[in-house]
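Crash report, auto-generated. Payload:
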Amino acid sequence: MAFLVKGGNGQYSYSNNSSFQRGAIHATKELINEAIAENLDIKNFSSSNTFRVTDLGCSVGPNTFVAVQNIIDAVNLKYQSQGHRTPEFQVFFNDHALNDFNTLFTSLPPDRLYYAAGVPEYQKRCWTKPLPAYNKGRIHYSNSSDKVVEAYAAQYAKDMECFLNARAQEVVCGGLVAIIVPGSPNGIPHSQVFVNMGSELLGSCLLDMVQKGIISEEKVDSFNLPTYFASPQEVEAAVERNGCFHIERMEMVPQEIPSGNSSTSRGRVMSSHMRAGMSGIIKEHFGEEIIDELFDAVHKKFDESSLFESWNRN
Amino acid sequence: MAFLVKGGNGQYSYSNNSSFQRGAIHATKELINEAIAENLDIKNFSSSNTFRVTDLGCSVGPNTFVAVQNIIDAVNLKYQSQGHRTPEFQVFFNDHALNDFNTLFTSLPPDRLYYAAGVPEYQKRCWTKPLPAYNKGRIHYSNSSDKVVEAYAAQYAKDMECFLNARAQEVVCGGLVAIIVPGSPNGIPHSQVFVNMGSELLGSCLLDMVQKGIISEEKVDSFNLPTYFASPQEVEAAVERNGCFHIERMEMVPQEIPSGNSSTSRGRVMSSHMRAGMSGIIKEHFGEEIIDELFDAVHKKFDESSLFESWNRN
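Recovered output after restart:
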């Protein structure tokens, strides 16, 4: 189990900078390799000669294929080291039905040594209901009332339970689940987590639009971003409560925040990342027409803020 | 095993008329139901409680989902009639990687009682090489030299062998394969099969373009449509030669040719169907720029020809 949280702040190119996920894959590669070498219990299933890998939330390549190849290489090594012949690999690429599977399928590595299938869903999205607590003037739990924070934490616990139960039905005895989730370190207040500060900044841009009469106050009050950055303690508690798995290993994975370059500010990069991830649910609630203006405002506010400095501090 | 060949010529609407495949599905539904009731040997695999269905060449719904639901209903009935509880169904939708899986996935029936996965390939396309016989002035084996006909028949035999070997590795003991292929009745010369006449008409339109100097003669001589309409005897021989399956049933399925209506001629409908099926390989060989003019010519030539009358005769 790996956590992506804040980390170093090195100089790097725009192209590296725009591929957050690749960074996560590299950072977790070694962890996954070691977990497979130490904890995968192949004697339980090596007789079937078929090894199945599922990428839950695969999105579109090439990162997807790098992650899968890492796993296959590590499993192959394990089989060889124990004197078993190489199994047949079946890889299930899972994401929401709206994911671009056409691009995924046409970019599959032609020299891959596995069977590939796309799976448009494994389970329903959990968080579909409105928050059962009134969150006036905010779109997130960060810096909000205890009631709102509790509602978010309860929804997170429920979603994890739903996720772990589904995996418990799928994974063979001796198999492994690697979970890479955004999180926050134990003991850090929610309001001091960098990504939560980003969500607050987004919320303040929406409130500015209320001031300008572009959207209504009610719209903002009834909108809540469905993201929660759990602590390792909370994840551990969820796994123990579920009882189907035990944690072999849990690590914080350093994550670099986007840096700008001469032609692109850090605020612009950050706003583009947020737009890529959140514009779908924002459109659904507020309508498409506010998107350009909203993320332009996010970009400017990030550049004017001292948020990136806070990343270095904690 | 079912063959789609020429049949009745009823009056029907454009919307029915434009869904050839739906006709094939309805026509084969009863055949598949009976084969499942009589020949599916569930005692061999009912202990696993998972039943897998694969649609090879699924294309895009809704026909796809109708075909799959027919199979699931028939299998459920069989399980129930033998006192087994309903199995968990897994459906694998297979087609070339370029198939529109995005549309397929987003149009999956929301109330389906099966797990769905998309599989971008099961095997390489077999026919990728040029024909090993010179086919001057033609793009098909119909009305061509014995050498060309033999080359087509040999390629067909090879492709069927490749197809059957792949299925032999996948299908469980007691399982069934339903093959719906375009074919021609025993004893009918290739040149009198309606679809082959259509291919000849297409070829003659390409030759007209050579006359006009739009494409070169060599281009036409080096192009061969990769379609072969085998007789039931040839299919039977292929299955026997392969030796992994035996034929439980083989039937001719009546197929209606497209009819026009007040605003759309039969030639237009036929040309649209041919364009939908063949424009890909024609573009690849001749370039995209000839497509509009070519299929306009096909449309006009169909309307001027007596080909539709020949459909009624044989």
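Post-recovery validation: Residues 1-19 of chain A have pLDDT under 50 and may be disordered.
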